[in-house]
Structures are given as structure tokens and as C-alpha cells.
């Protein structure tokens, strides 16, 4: 007992000054890299908004029209109009359809990998799914443009191959890997004691999943879905190529649409810098940023809910 | 494990690619500092085919001159000319007076226009579409904002092998010279009807029409393919419809033909001047004709 404080006192002075200084420096570097993420996000928002802001006072631009009109005529010779309602509807409809396709497959895949399959199958499946997540979006777009569009015309009875369903299938294929891997983690995080208790009560495998695991992993699974949505909303290249790029409110899943992201990608390069058109495109950027921010924040809160449990 | 291995392979590939780029970059720059001249050429997507063919052919004639060609649309080329970043801007529409003024204010030089050829703007439908001709009024009815033609049956045709009747309108992105020309000549400057599929290139329009039985689209005549049919166009209903050909384009019988022009800042000089003269000479005009455009009337030669 009495020897330990003296040993501590002896150890302290032994640390060289450079070691202490080095450690402090490292600490600061790490702290800075941590904070840098916040700085970058804020800086992006500030710069995007700064490019967009002057249009708010432009007389050609009307914020109500921006949100409620479907007329998108940025280069009209007679009547320039900046209505993004059709683009917003396009983004949300293709995302919703993509999720309707991706969520059953994604959650099903997560449950299978986590609960049913043998370890070797699991390893193979996880690798293949990670591979699916690594396919670049322009390759997906290419598949949508060439393969999927032909299939949809031939077997789906669609008048045009590039349409909302095409884009949604491509987006679903991109979102499934995210949903599967995060969903699987959430199911894995349920303590084995839950499973053991369920089996001990005589529950079948299905009952165990439906009554015990899904409710226990609810928040994690919801977060998986929300992150999948974030991916789908922000995706650009694939939807630019696969959705047909038509400004209209879709009336069916086979109608071509245009999304906010694809619109920015297609038009920003040609809009003269500083023109109202250019600034309105940045405004849609702010809108997109807000949408993905809300989705990610919701996902974050949901995940935090899991941890508190 | 696997993921990290994939990362490793990816990193190695990236490093190799970077090395390669550096090496080739070095080589190029050392050549450029020698006797090689480079001409920057940008603009019209309608003209990008012929611009590339010209550049390739010119390499054979003058191996010491590099012509770098990129497309993007007439608006993009003109914007680059205003900034002074290109030597030659290709445009399938005329430069607007305010663009001229901007270029002059920005660079101190007035853009000079030279017509290097002609192009007929063809209206395409799927090859199985029984329709053979269409009038400008009908086109406006299909494409313009207040147009009332939405079904093929309104034009008196039924598309074989499909139950769809609705016309699928295929158009161009708004920076395209073709888009503006169509708006001016066919829609008399009125706006397009929303909901058209706006493609980013002439070729994409033709490909989509070829794959869509109920589609209609417009592009330069040079982009015609086996999967599509060019319609004859009547200036007014009742008047005879004219097929887009070289002869009808030059005689202005075909109603939606246009000139293709290049713009330079100030009178072209040096290598740029020689290149443009070659374009407008017999060899350049032969390349233009082979790419599916209409050459300048032979006697006029230059301008």
C-alpha cells in the first residue's frame, strides 16, 4: 500500500518533455480531424447557399412558384419560369418506389444472413453483397439505359424504356446492399440471451424472428432503411441515365420523370455562371441538401435510440 | 480480408494509373513545347461528329498540329469563346448580339462567323411507324406548350405491334443549339410542352427513337440510323412535303435546314486560319459530306 504512491511519483518525472509535447500535439491533430468534418459540412452548406442566395431578391424568381409550380422553363425565350414541383415529385416518387422494392429484399436478406444461413454461406453472401455495393453508379445507369429499358419495353409493356420503374429498380439494387449490411448488424446486436429465451419458450424460428428479434432490432432496421433512402435521394448518375429526364408529375410507374439531382447535373454545366438559372440550380442544391440532411439526421436519432437501450 | 485485398488491388491500380498519366503527361507537354501547335475546338453537339472527323483527317495532312475537339452544345462552345478559352467555337445556331457584345467586352475582340456547311434538322420516328410526312403545324401541335396533339391517332396513324397510342416526345437539353433552332423555327419561339424526354446528345435522341415504337424526335440528318425513319416535312398543311436531302437543304425547299458555323475571336490567323481554310476547302468539305452534313455550294468554295 505505502509503496505504490512512491512508485507513481517516481514514474511521472521519467516521461520526457518531447513525449508529453508529442502527445499533446497528436491529441490536437486528432481533435482537429474530428472537428474538420463539421467544418466541411458547414462550409459546403454556406458556399452552396451563398451561390444561391442572390436569386431570392431577383424579380424573375418567386419562392412560392419554386415550390408549387411544375413549369421548369429556365431558358425560355418568352417566359422564364423556375418551378421545381415536378422535380421534387420525381425525386420522391422514384425514391418511394425504389424503397418499396428494396426494403422487402433488403430486410429479408438481412434476416436470412443473420439468422438462417450457415457460416460459410454467410461469408459468401456478405462478400457478394459488398461487391454489389461497390458497383459504380454510372455502371448501374448504363445497365438501366441498355438492358433494363429493353426488358421493360419488351416484357413490361412500357411505352418508353427509360422511366420511373427503370430508375427505381436501379436505385433499389443500389440501396439493397446498404439495407442488408446495416440491417444484419442490427440483428446481430440483439443479445443471444433473447434468442435462447425464445427457443426455451418453445418458439419456432419464424415466431422467434417475428415476435422477438424484429421488435428488438426495430430501430436499427429503421435506420438501415433510412440510410437506403438517403442513398436513393442523393443518387445522380444512375437516375440521370435511367429515368428519361422528363419534367412532369408521374401518373404511373411507367412514366418518365426527372429528379432534382439529375436536373442539376444536366444543366449546371451550361448555365452561365452567376445567371439566375445558375443560382436557381444552386437553390435546388440547398433543397437537396436539406432533404438528405433531414433523412440522415432522422436515421441518426433512430440509431441513438438503439444505443440507449 | 477480401475487402482489404480489394482495396489493396485498387490502390495499386490507382498508383499505376497515376504514374502512367504523369509519364504520358510529361511526354505530351515536352512535345507541345517543341514545334507542335494546338487548336482548341469546342461547341455544338450537332457538329461534334464532323469536328472530330476533321481533326482526325487534319492530323494526316498536318501532323504537327493538334486539334482538340469537345462537344457540349453550341451554348457551351460560345460561352467558352466569350471566356477566351477556345480558338474555334462550333455552333449550330447564330451567336446572339448580346453574346457578341459580351465576347468583345471580355476579350477585346469581336467574334467572326464563318459558315462551314449546312445541316437539315430531321424529324425521326421509329422505322415501323407508318407515318411518312408531317407539317410544321403538326410538329408545333405535338411539341409546343399549348399544343393539342398527344396521340398518334390524331395524326391518323396506328403504330403496329403496340397498344400504346400516346406520342412519346423526345427533345434536347436546353443548352443545345438544336433545341433553340427547333424552338425558333417550329414552335415560333414558344415554349416546349413539359414532359418531353430531354436527351443530352443528338445520338441519344436517335437511339431512343430506334428503341421506342411510339416516339418522335429531332436531330441532325447525319445521325440517321437503320432503326429510325426521317419524315418528309411540309411547310404548311396541304403543301407538298419535302424530304431532307442535300439538294433540298441547299435550295431551302426543306423548311428546317440551318447553316453550321464556326466562330473565332477576331479574324482567324496563323494555324487557326489554315485549319478553317482547309475545312472549307475540298478535302474538309468531303469529310463534312461523309459525316452526313451538306457541304457548301461547290463554286463558292470559301465565302
Total helices of chain A: the number is 13
Report the structural category of chain B. alpha/beta
- The CATH architecture of the largest domain in chain A is Orthogonal Bundle
Described by its quaternary structure, the protein is heterodimer
- Mean pLDDT across the residues of chain B is 84
- Could you name the CATH topology of the largest domain in chain B? D-Maltodextrin-Binding Protein, domain 2
CATH architecture of the largest domain in chain B: 3-Layer(aba) Sandwich
Number of helices of chain B: 10
Q: Give the overall shape of chain A, derived from the CA principal axes.
A: globular
Enumerate the spans of chain A where pLDDT stays under 50 for 5 or more consecutive residues: none
Biggest β-sheet strands, sense, barrel of chain A: 2 strands, antiparallel
Beta-strand portion of chain B reads 15-25%
Separation, N- and C-terminal Cα atoms of chain A: 40 Å
**How big a fraction of the residues of chain A is strand?**
under 5%
CATH superfamily of the largest domain in chain A: MetI-like
Beta strands of chain B, count: 11
Largest interface, Cβ cutoff 8 Å: A-B, 35 and 33 residues
Structure, explained:
The complex is a heterodimer of chains A (309) and B (303). By secondary structure, chain A is mostly helical. Chain A folds into two domains: 7-57; 66-308, MetI-like fold, CATH 1.10.3720. In chain A, 74% of the residues lie in helices and 1% in strands. Chain A contains 13 helices and two strands; from the N terminus they run αααββαααααααααα. Chain A has helices spanning 3-14, 17-52, 63-68, 85-116, 119-133, 137-154, 164-188, 192-200, 205-216, 218-234, 237-242, 260-267, 276-308; strands at 72-73, 81-82. A two-stranded antiparallel sheet of chain A has the order 1-2. In chain A, helix 2 (17-52) packs across helix 13 (276-308), helix 7 runs antiparallel to helix 10 (218-234) and helix 8 (192-200) packs antiparallel against helix 9. The two termini of chain A are 40 Å apart. The mean pLDDT of chain A is 88. By secondary structure, chain B is an alpha/beta fold. Chain B folds into two domains: 36-118 and 260-299, D-Maltodextrin-Binding Protein, domain 2; 119-257, Periplasmic binding protein-like II (D-Maltodextrin-Binding Protein, domain 2), CATH 3.40.190.10. Helices cover 39% and strands 22% of the residues of chain B. Chain B has ten helices and eleven strands. Chain B has helices spanning 2-32, 48-61, 74-83, 97-107, 136-143, 177-185, 202-211, 246-250, 270-280, 282-290; strands spanning 37-43, 65-72, 88-91, 111-126, 133-135, 168-172, 197-199, 215-220, 228-230, 232-234, 257-265. In chain B, the strands form two sheets. In chain B, strands 1, 2, 3, 4, 6, 7, 8, 9 and 11 form a nine-stranded mixed beta sheet that branches. Chain B has a two-stranded parallel sheet with strand order 5-10. Chain B is elongated, with a radius of gyration of 22 Å. Chain A binds chain B through residues 70-79, 86, 127, 130, 134, 149-150, 153, 157, 159-162, 244-248, 256, 258, 266-267, 269-272, and chain B through 2-3, 6, 72-73, 75-76, 79, 162-164, 166, 168, 173-175, 183-184, 189-191, 194-200, 208, 211-212, 214-215.
Amino acid at each position: 500500500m505505502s509503496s505504490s504512491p512512491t512508485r507513481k511519483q517516481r514514474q511521472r518525472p521519467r516521461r520526457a518533455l518531447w513525449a508529453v509535447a508529442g502527445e499533446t500535439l497528436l491529441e490536437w491533430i486528432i481533435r482537429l480531424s474530428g472537428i474538420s468534418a463539421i467544418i466541411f459540412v458547414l462550409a459546403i452548406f454556406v458556399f452552396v447557399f451563398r451561390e444561391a442566395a442572390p436569386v431570392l431578391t431577383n424579380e424573375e424568381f418567386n419562392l412560392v412558384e419554386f415550390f408549387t409550380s411544375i413549369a421548369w422553363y429556365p431558358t425560355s425565350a418568352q417566359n422564364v419560369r423556375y418551378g421545381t414541383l415536378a422535380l421534387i415529385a420525381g425525386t420522391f416518387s422514384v425514391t418511394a418506389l425504389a424503397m418499396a422494392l428494396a426494403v422487402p429484399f433488403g430486410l429479408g436478406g438481412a434476416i436470412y444472413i443473420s439468422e438462417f444461413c450457415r457460416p460459410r454461406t454467410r461469408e459468401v453472401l456478405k462478400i457478394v453483397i459488398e461487391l454489389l455495393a461497390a458497383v459504380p453508379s454510372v455502371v448501374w445507369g448504363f445497365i438501366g439505359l441498355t438492358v433494363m429499358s429493353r426488358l421493360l419495353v419488351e416484357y413490361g409493356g412500357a411505352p418508353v424504356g427509360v422511366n420511373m420503374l427503370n430508375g427505381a429498380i436501379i436505385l433499389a439494387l443500389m440501396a439493397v446492399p446498404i439495407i442488408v449490411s446495416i440491417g444484419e448488424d442490427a440483428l446481430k446486436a440483439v443479445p443471444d440471451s433473447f434468442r435462447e429465451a425464445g427457443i426455451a419458450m418453445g418458439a419456432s424460428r419464424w415466431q422467434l424472428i417475428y415476435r422477438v428479434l424484429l421488435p428488438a432490432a426495430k430501430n436499427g432496421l429503421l435506420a438501415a432503411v433510412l440510410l437506403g433512402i438517403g442513398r436513393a435521394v442523393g443518387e445522380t448518375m444512375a437516375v440521370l441515365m435511367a429515368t428519361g429526364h422528363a419534367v412532369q408529375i408521374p401518373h404511373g410507374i411507367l412514366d418518365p420523370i426527372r429528379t432534382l439531382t439529375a436536373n442539376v447535373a444536366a444543366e449546371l454545366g451550361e448555365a452561365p455562371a452567376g445567371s439566375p438559372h445558375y443560382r436557381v440550380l444552386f437553390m435546388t442544391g440547398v433543397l437537396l441538401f436539406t432533404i438528405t440532411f433531414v433523412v440522415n439526421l432522422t436515421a441518426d436519432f433512430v440509431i441513438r435510440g438503439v444505443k440507449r437501450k | 480480408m477480401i475487402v482489404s485485398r480489394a482495396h489493396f488491388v485498387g490502390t495499386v491500380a490507382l498508383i499505376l494509373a497515376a504514374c502512367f498519366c504523369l509519364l504520358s503527361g510529361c511526354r505530351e507537354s515536352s512535345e507541345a513545347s517543341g514545334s507542335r501547335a494546338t487548336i482548341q475546338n469546342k461547341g455544338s453537339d450537332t457538329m461534334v461528329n464532323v469536328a472530330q472527323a476533321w481533326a482526325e483527317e487534319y492530323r494526316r495532312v498536318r501532323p504537327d498540329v493538334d486539334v482538340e475537339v469537345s462537344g457540349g452544345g453550341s451554348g457551351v462552345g460560345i460561352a467558352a469563346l466569350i471566356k477566351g478559352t477556345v480558338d474555334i467555337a462550333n455552333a449550330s445556331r447564330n451567336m446572339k448580339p448580346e453574346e457578341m457584345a459580351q465576347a468583345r467586352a471580355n476579350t477585346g475582340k469581336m467574334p467572326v462567323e464563318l459558315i462551314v456547311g449546312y445541316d437539315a434538322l430531321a424529324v425521326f420516328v421509329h422505322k415501323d411507324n407508318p407515318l411518312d410526312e408531317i407539317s410544321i403545324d403538326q410538329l408545333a401541335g405535338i411539341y409546343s406548350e399549348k399544343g393539342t396533339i398527344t396521340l398518334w391517332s390524331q395524326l391518323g396513324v396506328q403504330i403496329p405491334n403496340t397498344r400504346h397510342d400516346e406520342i412519346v416526345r423526345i427533345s434536347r437539353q436546353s443548352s443545345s443549339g438544336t433545341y433553340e433552332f427547333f424552338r425558333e423555327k417550329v414552335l415560333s419561339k414558344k415554349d416546349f410542352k413539359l414532359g418531353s424526354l430531354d436527351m443530352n446528345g443528338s445520338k441519344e435522341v436517335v437511339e431512343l427513337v430506334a428503341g421506342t415504337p411510339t416516339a418522335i424526335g429531332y436531330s441532325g440528318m447525319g445521325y440517321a440510323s437503320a432503326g429510325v425513319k426521317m419524315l418528309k416535312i411540309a411547310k404548311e398543311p396541304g403543301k407538298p412535303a419535302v424530304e431532307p436531302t442535300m439538294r433540298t437543304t441547299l435550295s431551302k425547299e426543306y423548311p428546317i435546314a440551318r447553316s453550321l458555323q464556326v466562330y473565332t475571336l477576331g479574324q482567324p490567323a496563323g494555324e487557326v486560319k489554315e485549319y478553317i481554310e482547309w475545312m472549307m476547302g475540298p478535302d474538309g468539305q468531303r469529310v463534312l459530306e461523309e459525316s452526313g452534313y451538306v457541304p457548301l455550294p461547290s463554286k463558292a468554295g470559301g465565302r
